[in-house]
Amino acid sequence: MSSIPVPLFPRVARVARVASISAHRRLPALLIVSGVLLSGCATPQNPDPIESVNRKTFALNEGLDKVVLKPVATAYKTVVPTPVRSGVTNFFSNLGDPWSGANLLLQGRFKDGLSDFARFGTNSTVGLLGFMDVATGWGMPRHGDGFSDTLGVWGVGGGAYVVLPLFGPSDLRSTASIPVNSYGSLTGQLEDAGARNAFTIVGMVDKRANLLDVTKMVDEVALDKYLFVRDAYLQRRAQREADRSGAPRVDVDASKAEPVASEPPKP
Hints:
Number of domains: 1
Radius of gyration: 19 Å
Shape: globular
Order of helices and strands: HHHHHEEHHHHEE
Structural class: mainly alpha
């Protein structure tokens, strides 16, 4: 049985702390400049107007993942039993439900919003602080909405595709939502910086561990990993927007990065 490489954990903490400080200091200026430069450049036919810059950031993230995050996540998956890892995933998912509920209310989806609040209360009590997800089986599914989804309902477009250092695939709308989501989350309410960093690190490692099999598959089948990840992100964004509007399902043409509507499956 492998042991977790302890020296790597401080490295993860330093990376997370530096990224957080850098993001909070530079984000406002970045959004103003990028919004002006890119709002008129991004189109359905060209959603990635700064591809050359994004590719460099993507390569940086891949390097950090290879050296720091992936080894820790691999050791975590090897050492920690599956039921425990599932409990950790459920715990962090539960922490996000109140913020999802608040955003759903802001979107006018009152039934879903109240359902997310009830889901949080149910899993936090019956589900033992959220380590067990009993609410889904009781008819309270997870929605996982954030402020970017709310902005989308309010008519704000996604904007150009961007790759953020450490955070990965995003767009201008989601990037603008990062400070709001951070402030509105339960972990963002923690006054102790050490506790916030600990939650952030464990959440990052747990999420990366859950994606190990997916990223392995992508590494094996993708001729251009950057394009594969970008098209998957754009397709997911288009699908969420289609689901909110009740429009037909939307696929992204990987060769043209264009939304292509298709009929939903018949019941």
